[in-house]
Amino acid sequence: MASVGSKFARALFDACVEDDSLEESYGDAQAALASFEDPELSEFLSEPRIKDSEKLAVIAKAFTGASPEILGLASAMIRHRRQDELVIALKLFLELARDRLGIILIKVSSPAPLSERQRERLRALIEKPTGKKVEFVEVQDKALIGGLSVRANGLLIDATVKSKLEKLRKSLRAQGDTGVQGDTL
After folding, report:
1. Are 34 and 79 part of one and the same domain?
2. Considering 12, 87, 111, 141, which has the largest number of Cβ atoms within 10 A of its Cβ?
């Protein structure tokens, strides 16, 4: 059975496709998602002692200029006491919109921020074979020594130094007499 959040996401997606506002609403949904993931706003919206009218006023003020579809989604979910599923609905809407707009979401983990050159090289490597526009989510992972890992659509490409060292360690252990003691690699 589909969740309430998925039903709201599908309704929003269908409305945006119908009135040709998918690209605008996509951008607004990304901004709204970042805001709704904020613990303070989430707590405020979930507080039963606060009237819906107050919650809606805060949403309207916070998202001045947002597409009517995004504001409508937030309003409908608050009125139906489903604000706890708002983040889920926005994430599902973004997935549907990416698919329709030909966008692939790439999560890149690296020890330092990517340079513009690295970002463009990755973009070219992915856009050409997929025919999709690339959207990056960059995560800095200080535990990585070097290299990067790229995750997209359930596929992981791990080109980190950490993974290469781990493969080397397994290979040496498999050979038996490595002369390496303990976990020195």
Report:
1. yes
2. 12
Q: Which residue has the tokens 């992981």?
A: 156
Question: Does residue 94 have a pLDDT over 90?
Answer: yes
- Residue 23 near residue 70 (C-beta atoms within 8 A): no
Is residue 41 a part of any domain in this protein? yes
- Please indicate, yes or no, whether residues 115 and 148 belong to a single structural domain of this protein: yes
Distance CA 85, CA 51 (A): 18
- How high does pLDDT run on average in the chain? 86
Name 150's bridge partners: 108, 157
Residue with tokens 């856009």: 127
- pLDDT tens sequence across 74-88: 889 888 888 888 889
Strand pairing category for 103-110 and 147-152 = antiparallel
pLDDT on residue 1 = 47
Give the domain CATH number at 158.
3.40.30
Instruction: Report the C-alpha gap between 167 and 174 in whole angstroms.
Output: 10
Taking only the tens place, the pLDDT of each residue in 24-66 is 999 999 988 888 888 888 889 888 899 999 998 988 888 878 8
- Give the contacts of 115 (CB within 8 A, at least 6 positions apart): none
Q: Does residue 180 lie in a domain region?
A: no
Question: What mean pLDDT comes out for the span 145-173?
Answer: 81
Task: From 45, 65, 99, give the residue that closes a domain.
Answer: 99
